[in-house]
TrEMBL record:
Entries under InterPro entries matching the protein: NAD(P)-bd_dom_sf (IPR036291), Sc_DH/Rdtase_CS (IPR020904), SDR (IPR050259), SDR_fam (IPR002347)
Gene3D superfamilies reported in the protein's UniProt record: NAD(P)-binding Rossmann-like Domain (3.40.50.720)
Lineage: Bacteria, Bacillati, Bacillota, Bacilli, Bacillales
Species of the source: Paenibacillus piri
Name of the protein in question: SDR family oxidoreductase
Similarity comment: family membership: Belongs to the short-chain dehydrogenases/reductases (SDR) family.
GO BP annotation list: bile acid metabolic process
Keyword terms, alphabetized: Oxidoreductase
Coiled coil: none
Record-linked CDD domains: SDR_c
GO molecular-function term, one example from the UniProt record: oxidoreductase activity
Any matching Pfam family: adh_short_C2
Length: 251
């Protein structure tokens, strides 16, 4: 029960890593505000309730400042405060600096990066009441480059360094801020990225070939790392970048 008595806001909670984080944190005693732009977030909250946990679903777009405020307010209204934020919502669009439309670039920066600013602004006052933790789900592609993904890699790299600066700014407020960089993880997000390629099967094989452990990660493997970072077990960990990537960035 490593999150007993704590309230966590999880974005991207309708699928993949965000859903796994929501289920795991609830099993560890957290009250979960599960937020997503998709209706699938209701299923996450229902699964938590069915196993005796506490969860509220909020539909909202993390690219909107108002929605981010509503997500954070839901935590204080429903459960009286906020002790952890796990920001997992993100999108991806293919493109190089030469081919990407400005609209796609802006969409990615808004959903993947501006959201961290909006959520951080709304959450810091609540997190500082009793102390708390922020975990930004970045990506191994925030640490190394890749082809044809200029907007995504820029946003993820920015999140990693934003986490470090936020850690410095809010250490004295009792708020720890860390980024978690998954490698390729078996979720709809990863499958969609293969489907956008002209040959999805060879894109999948290429991705697999970059992982020394020889398989994709599971959402639970990422959730376990997020739980560590958000829990008191990581009480001396702030400004850190934790890679959980099967060795991808060690190559
Ligand atoms: N799956 C991977 O291989 C992988 C690798 C590295 C990093 N990541 C990161 O992990 C995080 C979770 O990805 P996932 O693989 O679980 O993806 P996923 O597609 O399974 O889940 C992402 C969720 O975010 C939600 N979302 C998208 N845009 C939103 C918005 N504007 N507002 C609110 N919710 C929104 C989606 O509806 C979805 O439920 C992302 O930040 C992603 O960049 C994933």
């Amino acid at each position: 029960m490593r999150m007993k008595g704590k309230t966590v806001l999880v974005t991207g909670a309708g699928s993949g890593i965000g859903r796994a984080v929501s289920l795991l944190f609830a099993a560890e005693g957290a009250s979960v505000v599960a937020a997503d732009v998709s209706e699938h977030v209701h299923a996450t909250a229902e699964r938590i309730a069915a196993s005796g946990g506490r969860a509220a679903a909020v539909i909202g777009d993390v690219g909107s400042r108002e929605s981010c405020l509503e997500m954070v307010e839901a935590a204080s209204e429903r459960y009286g405060g906020l002790q952890a934020l796990v920001h997992a919502a993100a999108i991806s669009r293919k493109g190089t600096v030469a081919t990407m439309k400005e609209e796609d670039w802006l969409d990615v920066q808004n959903v993947n990066l501006n959201s961290a600013f909006y959520l951080g602004q709304a959450a810091v006052p609540l997190l500082s009441v009793k102390g708390g933790a922020i975990v930004f789900i970045a990506s191994q592609l925030g640490l190394v480059g890749t082809r044809n993904s200029i907007a995504y890699t820029a946003a993820k790299g920015a999140i990693v360094n934003m986490a470090r600066s936020m850690a410095l700014d809010h250490a004295q407020d009792g708020i720890r801020v860390n980024s978690l960089c998954p490698g390729p993880v078996d979720t709809p997000f990863l499958h969609a990225s293969f489907m956008r390629e002209s040959d999805p099967e060879s894109a999948r094989a290429l991705s697999l070939g970059k992982i020394p452990i020889g398989r994709f990660g599971t959402p639970l493997e990422i959730a376990n790392a997020a739980l560590f970072l958000a829990s008191d077990e990581a009480s001396f960990v702030t400004g850190a970048t934790l890679t959980v990537d099967g060795g991808y960035t060690a190559l």
